Structures are given as C-alpha cells and as structure tokens.
Amino acid sequence: MELFTIHTPTVKAIPLIANLPHSGLYIPPDIAVMMAPAHLQSLPNSDWHLEKLYDFLPSLGITVMQANYNRYVVDLNRQAKEPLSGNFWSAVVPLQTAFGKPIYQTTPAPYQIQERINKYYITYHNQLSQLIEQKVREFGKVYLLDLHSFGGLIDDEVCLGNVNGKTCTENFINTVELAFINQKYQVVKNKTFTGGYITRHYSENKNVETLQIEIRYQTYLSEQDLDKPLIPQWDVPNFYFSKVKLQQIIADIANKYNE
C-alpha cells in the first residue's frame, strides 16, 4: 500500500490543491493486531469515503493529495510535538477515540510511535510541502483546501475554518461559503472547527492561503449506517445526491481562481 496518492489534473491545472489527510482506511497488520477489534471494524471519526466523494476534483484542474493510511496510524493534522501519543485531539498517534475510548489492547511503545512518525507522518508532509512549493513556482499564489468530514453532536452541515481569519483572506472564505450556500447547505465559519495543523502550518508561506472544510457525515452518508458499529457504506443515494452538489460547489470556487 502506497503511503499516499497524488491525483494530477486531467485538464489545465489551476492554483488549487485539495488535501485529504483522514480519508484513508488502511491499517498495516502489525498495527492492526495491537488494536481493539471493535475499532478496527468501524475506524470511528475517520473521514469515510471522501476520496470517492471528491474524485471529480482533477477534472476541474485541482491537484489532489490523499492519505491511504488511517488516522489511527498517524494523524497528519496534528503537530508532531510531545506528547506524541495520547489525546485524540492533540497527539500525532491517538490512544483513544474522540469519545475517550481506548483504541489499543496493546499500547504502542515509544520507539514504535517514533517509527510511525518517521515512516508515515514526515514522509507525507515532505511530499505535501514539495507539492505546494511546486505549485507556488508555477502560479505564484496557491490555495489549499483541507477536506474533512465529521459526526457527533454538531448539527451544522458545513464548517469552514481559517483560524479566525489568519490562514486565508475574507475573500477566499466568503467565496467558498457562498458556493455552499448556493447549493442550500447551512454553513458556519470558525465554529468548532477553526483549522487544524495543516491549515495553520502551510499558511505560514505568504504565497499560500489555506482553508479547512468540514462536512457533516449525514450530508453524504446513510443515517441508518451511521448508527452501526461498522464503516458506513458509500454506495447510497445520499452519496450521489451530495456528490452532484459538491461538484457544482467546487466548480464555482475553481472558476474564481482559474487563471
């Protein structure tokens, strides 16, 4: 299994990059054997099936980078700082789910944590950095969309985060907001999800604007499937309905930044 997949545009490239750090579902056998079986069956709080939901992006000129390994191997949207393992919301290697339930029946040793960071985390970010720099050289200015999905008790349909105005201009976030609103989505800005490590880190480059986009599971998956302790099915009517709307949304955004 490749660590990541890069999808290059199938038409003229535009200065937009889409990143999918949490949609991968693969867990290597040596890590899977350490995990609680219930979590292996469901991989809770993964961004299930976003790579299929957004598979039209290259046809709009957008370059896509997606992780193939699950977020429980390493969380690419966390800063690699101590403690490296532990809390779901802050550690590179989470030891609990978002709801505080233990993930492992055998806790990874510190050297195993470091091995994962070296193999998966650093390699991914090195490649994403190279991709962004390549696009900056090509276009001068680049826009990074960090694509996620979420569940839980949050009722909002779409959450946009630019760290309260720090990672992209008002013009960019407003363009994205309007595109979603035009397709009848309810949108909030910098509420709950203000932007993770990827959004914050890559916007440090003055030639890069970043925006985290979170869509609620129920907008594209089956509510019935979400009640089961399994990975939801993607081949459901809601998925195709949402995909058509998202294709128009991203096309509207792409048209604004198509040189």
Automatic annotation (TrEMBL):
Family matches, as InterPro entries: N-FG_amidohydro
Superkingdom of origin: Bacteria
SUPFAM superfamilies referenced in this protein's UniProt entry, alphabetically: Zn-dependent exopeptidases (SSF53187)
Gene Ontology terms for molecular function: hydrolase activity
Stored Pfam families: FGase
Keywords: Hydrolase
Protein name: N-formylglutamate amidohydrolase
Species: Dulcicalothrix desertica PCC 7102
Lineage: Bacteria, Bacillati, Cyanobacteriota, Cyanophyceae, Nostocales
